[in-house]
Amino acid sequence: MPWSYLPHTEADRKAMLAAIGVANSGELFADIPAELCLHRPLNLPAALAEPDLAKHLAALAGANINVSEYICFLGAGAYDHYIPSVVDHILRRSEFYTAYTPYQPEISQGYLQALWEYQALIAELTGLEVANSSLYDGGTGLAEAAMVAASATGRKEFLVAKTVHPHYRAILSTYARDRGYTLTEIGYQDGVLAAGELQNKLGPTVAAVIVQSPNFFGCIEDLAAGTAAAHAQGALMIAAVDPISLGLLEAPGKLGVDIVVGEGQSLGIPLSFGGPYLGFFATTEKLMRKIPGRIVGQTVDQEGNRGFVLTLQAREQHIRREKATSNICSNEALCALAAAVYLNTMGKEGLPQIASLSLQKAHYAYTQLTGIKGVEPVFGAPFFKEFAVRLPQPVAAVNKQLLAANIIGGLDLGNYYPELTGCTLLCVTESRSRQEIDLLAARLGAIV
Amino acid sequence: MNIPKELKYSRDHEWVKIEGTRATIGITDFAQSQLGDVVFVELPAVGDEVAAGSGLAVIESVKAVSDIYAPLAGKVVETNELLADAPETVNQDAYGTGWIAVLEISDLPQPDALLDSEAYERLVGEGGQ
């Protein structure tokens, strides 16, 4: 029985093929040019029996190191925040876990309500009026925000801070290339966007100014000043933010930022080697009809009972493909649900506490590390939970030795910013204890 | 079905009121009734140059999203800002306060490009296609 999970028997298959008048299923792909076909089976190892497969996968997984056995000081867009156990319990309910797109509100009220609550939480956190029900990740969210700005302003140039995550900028340039948009980078001074350079490059052709705060270096950008400068030239302001930081920092929407996006992985989603993650997206009511992705709305049925539906679908590609804001109709519903459960669990007091612990522990680590002879601070700007330090030895060599001591070191900034060769970007969340930070300082001191 | 005699019509169900070098454009009573409740009108920008037959505005109803085409070529000199806050005006007063935009005509339409009220009435009588 090679196909034990498939419902059709060999006889069923023959009958179906005969009914449509083809000899085998291969004939159904006759319109694919022969030169594009492989003409051989895929080069894969033989199938395994389930117990053997389980052993094989366990061995593969065992080859990875993980944050429960190692002390993690690596961030740069993916963060080791604590995930309350309630998140997983709710996520694993089969009503949520196996649900499909809620196109039929009649049978999807539970999920629609959960996603609507997620949107409400994101809107409140960002200080904006509307949020969608999620995109793939923070980088996608940022690129989609830029597309919205181009569409809303009719302009084709973006000013992008070099302090925005390099991966996010790479995604943005992929989007911009095909649409013929221009990206102009704005340099940095002391860890934050160079305000003078922004002012010089701003003009009537700029669709949006794009920043991240806390930025890739962990430093806090002046969103209010950037927004004022952008608006003065008729450009929109787009900010990618760390949602945990919003437990302490002012909501960007309240500072006038037009579109706020970000990576929601910190909100109850495991690191998982980079995905699935969560892109959140929030904006003003004015831009509501240009939002990419799905939006869940609250309404009433004909008897006046509260209900939830996918709304404003005219923006989506299945209505008018060539005119849609975005080609993305997918969302990350399960990850959005995790974020909603996380935020509801933490609550109004918990989130500021997590933010404050992360901030204080990061600053304690900064003080400890920069006290080591040969370890130098890189930037003077205020930072949240990440900071850069310059090491007297190559970062890769230092990280290798830290790993031997069960410590995952920082990101080698030289890989992305040649001018920062020898600098490492370290991250400290609320999950790190004082003992762990002291251990990092002791090990690093011994290495350098 | 209201089809004013003094207006010209396009086969896409726009009405045109030509006064000197300017043309006011809206959608017909038939069009608004087919669309159902209008919830949003995306207006062009003043200064936009439009060719005859190109997209002028986008109208969204509870049922569908439709393009509104320019019945003749020109430059947008005025748009109906009232529709931003009260898009339902298109349903309530399609030929009056529900107008969409005013064009400064750059090219007069071909003699047979626009229909008179009788021809338009026949078009609607045949199902509007």
UniProtKB/TrEMBL annotation, chain A:
GO molecular function: glycine dehydrogenase (decarboxylating) activity
Keyword Oxidoreductase attached: yes
SUPFAM superfamilies from the UniProt entry: PLP-dependent transferases
GO terms, biological process: glycine decarboxylation via glycine cleavage system; nucleoside metabolic process
Catalysed reaction, written as an equation: N(6)-[(R)-lipoyl]-L-lysyl-[glycine-cleavage complex H protein] + glycine + H(+) = N(6)-[(R)-S(8)-aminomethyldihydrolipoyl]-L-lysyl-[glycine-cleavage complex H protein] + CO2
Keyword Oxidoreductase: yes
Superkingdom of this protein's organism: Bacteria
Enzyme class: oxidoreductase
Pfam families referenced in this protein's UniProt entry, alphabetically: GDC-P (PF02347)
Residue ranges occupied by any Glycine cleavage system P-protein N-terminal domain in the UniProt entry: 4-441
Key words of the record: Oxidoreductase
Function of the molecule: The glycine cleavage system catalyzes the degradation of glycine. The P protein binds the alpha-amino group of glycine through its pyridoxal phosphate cofactor; CO(2) is released and the remaining methylamine moiety is then transferred to the lipoamide cofactor of the H protein.
Similarity-based family: Belongs to the GcvP family. N-terminal subunit subfamily.
Subunit and partners: The glycine cleavage system is composed of four proteins: P, T, L and H. In this organism, the P 'protein' is a heterodimer of two subunits.
Protein name: Probable glycine dehydrogenase (decarboxylating) subunit 1
Organism: Sporomusa termitida
UniProtKB/TrEMBL annotation, chain B:
Co-factor remark: Binds 1 lipoyl cofactor covalently.
PROSITE patterns assigned to the protein according to its UniProt record, in alphabetical order: BIOTINYL_LIPOYL (PS50968), LIPOYL (PS00189)
Superkingdom, natural source: Bacteria
SUPFAM superfamilies in UniProt: Single hybrid motif
Domain Lipoyl-binding, first and last residues per copy: 22-104
A matching Pfam family: GCV_H
GO BP terms, alphabetized: glycine decarboxylation via glycine cleavage system; protein lipoylation
Keywords associated with the record: Lipoyl
Keyword S-adenosyl-L-methionine applies: no
Any one Gene Ontology cellular component term annotated for this protein: glycine cleavage complex
Entry-linked CDD domains: GCS_H
Cofactor(s) this protein requires: (R)-lipoate
Residues recorded with modification N6-lipoyllysine: K63
Family to which this protein belongs: Belongs to the GcvH family.
Function recorded in the entry: The glycine cleavage system catalyzes the degradation of glycine. The H protein shuttles the methylamine group of glycine from the P protein to the T protein.
Assembly with partners or alone: The glycine cleavage system is composed of four proteins: P, T, L and H.
Name of this protein: Glycine cleavage system H protein
